[in-house]
Amino acid sequence: MITLILGTSEGKKILSLLNEFTEDIAVTTATNYGGDLLKKYRYKILNTKPLDIEDLKLFLIDNKSTILVDASHPYAQVVTENAIKVCKELKIEYIRYERPSVSEGYKDDIVSVRNYDELNIKLLDVKGTILNTTGSNNIGKFMNMNLDNRIIHRVLPSTKVMEKCYELGVKTEDVIAIKGPISYQLNLAFIDEYNAKAIVLKDSGVEGGTEEKIKAAIDRKLKIFMLERTNPVYTNSFYEVEKLVEYIKLYLLGTK
Question: Which residue ranges traverse the bilayer (predicted)?
């Protein structure tokens, strides 16, 4: 069986192409929302809860997996590290789908930071509103920075996320709840509406809407802070879904 760890929109395309020749697939996502997006595709197992390293190991064993495709988000570092470790232990073929980066084309426009401690230091020089687009899982890090700036958090419009914002003490008027990716024009509108002077983002690739954020921020002369991706060493990785699926097909046929 093929196991897919899905955490990006490309998961739908991966499933669609795999379904052209197999439905012997087990899928795991971190949320119910992620699972809901996959309802029209064919697979035998769907898990919608986060798996720690032991959970993942059992999931692979129970489903007799021979291939694991890690298409988790570029910043889901722990998920990827766990997947690599478990596959090595169980002698399962590990394949990484990695979204292409967009940061290389904007090196002169962005300030890259390695972590939130470094980001905190950089944000001390910002005067005015900061737009945080790094996701709800990182709001607590911003709240702990004790900045005087108003921080607007762009998050997914789910009940769970809104409850998290409330629990962390985020004011309702400081939340933009919208499903991305969003257009260049809408990014401009949010920047203008909140009179933002800086934006914090991740390099989530073209598919994640990163380029539209950067272009809008450049045109409004915002300071742009980007959290760097970690760079694990992959033994087998792909940047194109079609090539990934072709490799899987050949592997199943025994020619890889």
Answer: none
